[in-house]
Prior knowledge:
It is a single chain. The protein is mostly helical and about 220 residues long. It folds into 2 domains: about 140 residues, no CATH class; about 80 residues. Helix content is about 55%, strand content about 0%. It contains 9 helices and 2 strands, in the order E-H-H-H-E-H-H-H-H-H-H. The chain has a two-stranded antiparallel sheet with strand order 1-2. Helix 3 packs across helix 4.
Amino acid sequence: MRTRAMILGLGLGLLAGMAQPPNARASACGMGDDIDWYAGERSKVSEAVDLLEQGRARDAAWVVQNVWPRLREARPVEGGLPHIAEAVRVMALASVRTSGDVNPGFGWTSRTAADRASNVRWGISRLRMLAAASPSSVMLEQNLGEALTASTETATEGNGILETLDRRHAITTPGAFVALARTRKLHGDEEGAAVALAQCETLEVSQDQCSESEAPPVVTASSVP
C-alpha cells in the first residue's frame, strides 16, 4: 500500500513519564542496551496503522488507547520515540475521522456533542504539533490538511494545504483526497470535487474509502491548548 511505504519516521517524544529511555531501563535493571524494550509497543502501533488504513479508525484508536492510557495528555515535542509519535498521529486522525466518536475510557468520552467536538479539537491540535515538529513530512502535512477541513473554523486553512499538495501531486491518502473533494464541493467546485475522488480511486485502497460519505461531518472546533 502506498501509504504504508510513507509511514512516519518521526523523531518525536511525549510528556515525561509516558516512555522511559531504553538505557534508563537497562541501567535500572543492570542490563545492557541490546534489549528491544519497545518491540511490543511498536507491534501494536503497526496494528493500529493497518486498521486506520483499512478505514477502521475507531478500532485503530482503541488499540493505542489501551497501550497508552494517558495518551490524551500527550504533547509531541522534538527528540524521543518515533513509535509513540506515530501512536499520537493514529489517535489524532482517528479522532477526526470518527467525528470524535472514539471508544470511551482512559480519559476519553464521546457521550455528548461537546465531548465529540473536544475530541476533534484534540486531534487537530496534535496533528499541528506533529507537523510543526517535522515540517518536511508530506504525510503529516496531508494529515493536518485533512483534519483541518473537519472544523468550520479551520476548513479554509485545510483546503489551502490540500490544494497546494494537489498541485504538487503529493496527496497519497484517501482521507486527504476525500477531504479535498468535500471542501471543493462546499466552494461550488463540483468538477474539481469529482476529479479529487477520481484521483482517490487510483490508490490501492477499498473503493468505499473514496466515497464522500466516508468524510466526517464538519464540526465547530476552537483551539485546544
